[in-house]
Amino acid sequence: MSRRALTLEIKTRARTEFVPLSERIRKEAAALLEGAGILHLYVPHTTAGLCVNEGADPDVAADIARVLDRLAPWNADYRHAEGNAAAHVKSVLVGTSVTVPVRDSKLRLGRWQEIFFCEFDGPRSRAVELRFLPE
Amino acid sequence: MSRRALTLEIKTRARTEFVPLSERIRKEAAALLEGAGILHLYVPHTTAGLCVNEGADPDVAADIARVLDRLAPWNADYRHAEGNAAAHVKSVLVGTSVTVPVRDSKLRLGRWQEIFFCEFDGPRSRAVELRFLPE
Amino acid sequence: MSRRALTLEIKTRARTEFVPLSERIRKEAAALLEGAGILHLYVPHTTAGLCVNEGADPDVAADIARVLDRLAPWNADYRHAEGNAAAHVKSVLVGTSVTVPVRDSKLRLGRWQEIFFCEFDGPRSRAVELRFLPE
Description:
The structure is a homotrimer. By secondary structure, chain A is an alpha+beta fold. The first copy, chain A, has helices at about 20-30, 60-70, 85-95; strands spanning about 5-10, 15-20, 35-40, 50-55, 95-105, 105, 115-120, 125-135.
């Protein structure tokens, strides 16, 4: 494995769950971040995603999850036979990667920003791949 | 042209079409991917996008396209006079770029993941710009 | 501050506003773009975002803003007590970063593409962090 890449394992506990990652990244990926550049986070899944938004008030993530539920309801007129088409749609709306600036070997998140793993078809065992790209 | 960049030409055949790109990238962009880093894909268009999601069952892409049609119907109360405002909205919801990890000179897509070019105002001749960024 | 990073300050004037950035980037960030790579743009905010779409006809951005208003109405059944939950949701749908190819030290935007700062809870003083990553 590369010195500049790392995989975080995540166990989700509900169908929909926004799991904050920033604290884990600061602890487990500190050796990855050398100087200035960006941290690239990627989920190798098709029914999950990543986003950056407010972490201070957990109601914000709950509101985001509820709007996504309204945009892509779990039960609707989908063709995909596995029953989790809504989770695939949400993954596309939210996206499978985020990138965050790094300076002085530190994540440069805004004051209220948290990096969330977005579970849309849990509970499951998931992975997030981190990779540092220097300037 | 740079040794680390490449443009894929795409001909779409319908107004809405999700065109799988992973196989073409593996064949045509193999020389681009050297060691570890990320592959950056970019569409220089305003009525198309890129996403990563399930490729095994084509019903998944069809479901995603249908939900996007519901969120931004083709005919609605838009101001843009060209008649394709819905395609612009979908492009923003899906995004104009994706980034995928590369390791050992290979794309690190998840087992079920496919990279899709998303046509929202076809049929047209389109381009996707690929660029490799090393760790 | 790094030679390859730069912060743009933005003053927004309305609750919702799409502020074109490409011209400012070409002028103020020219020294950042050296050769080939990508420009990474990031907002450290949780009620704003970034997108790339048509800049020629301002009706396009207005249509995008209006669809987002329909998907996440300002007044709805949100839990977040600050009253701006809709802005958080839109930030997630649009995303907090965009990446644009650079070649020959120039932004490689498509002919109709403009980079927009998306204000969803203005008017406010905002920042966009730019960072160049070489191939």
